[in-house]
């Protein structure tokens, strides 16, 4: 069974709790990603920030992006997977939480990210369709 370690993107960059949403958007653009982990000063994972969060929680509410801190958008329990979790566990986690990207943790350390596309490449076509259907419903 394939593990997160085998399909993840390693070397993930965080956005700090106190860093602005503008800086986060610039990092996303530079890295070509749609999400960044939010990390504290101890580099511990505190949440996730997506491009969608910036649009819906900042721009649509007419908040000032330069004055809005990434940490203000970190809400609820952080959903993450372990580096040794297999693709079936990753699939269940994505489906249960309706997310398309998951941070990968090894102990207390953030070591990578797994995206929907990473999982899809490792699954039979029927399971990919089921995953997409589950993530697309409200």
Give the topology.
Elements: H1 4-7, E1 9-10, E2 15-16, H2 21-31, E3 35-39, E4 45-50, H3 51-59, E5 81-82, H4 87-97, E6 101-106, E7 109-115, H5 116-120, H6 125-136
Parallel strand pairs: 2-3, 5-6
Antiparallel strand pairs: 1-7, 3-4, 6-7
CATH C-level category: Alpha Beta
Can you count the helices? 6
* Strand fraction: 15-25%
Helix content percent band: 25-40%
Order of helices and strands: HEEHEEHEHEEHH
Mean pLDDT, to the nearest integer, reads 89
**Secondary-structure class:** alpha/beta
CATH topology: CBS-domain
Q: Total domains, how many? A: 1
Specify the CATH homologous superfamily.
CBS-domain
Characterize the main sheet.
4 strands, mixed
**CATH architecture label name:** Roll
Keywords: CBS domain
Protein name: CBS domain-containing protein
Pfam families: CBS (PF00571)
InterPro entries: CBS_dom (IPR000644), CBS_dom_sf (IPR046342), Diverse_CBS-Domain (IPR051257)
Summarize the structure.
The protein is an alpha/beta fold and 138 residues long.
Write structural notes for this entry.
This protein is of the alpha/beta class and about 140 residues long. The protein has a single domain (about 5-135), classed as CBS-domain (Roll). About 40% of the residues lie in helices and about 20% in strands. It has six helices and seven strands; from the N terminus they run αββαββαβαββαα. The protein has helices spanning about 5, 20-30, 50-60, 85-95, 115-120, 125-135; strands at about 10, 15, 35-40, 45-50, 80, 100-105, 110-115. The strands form two sheets. A four-stranded mixed sheet has the order 1-7-6-5. The protein has a three-stranded mixed sheet with strand order 2-3-4. The longest helix has 12 residues, at about 125-135. It is globular, with a radius of gyration of 15 Å. It starts with a helix and ends with a helix. About 25% of the residues are buried. The mean pLDDT is about 90.
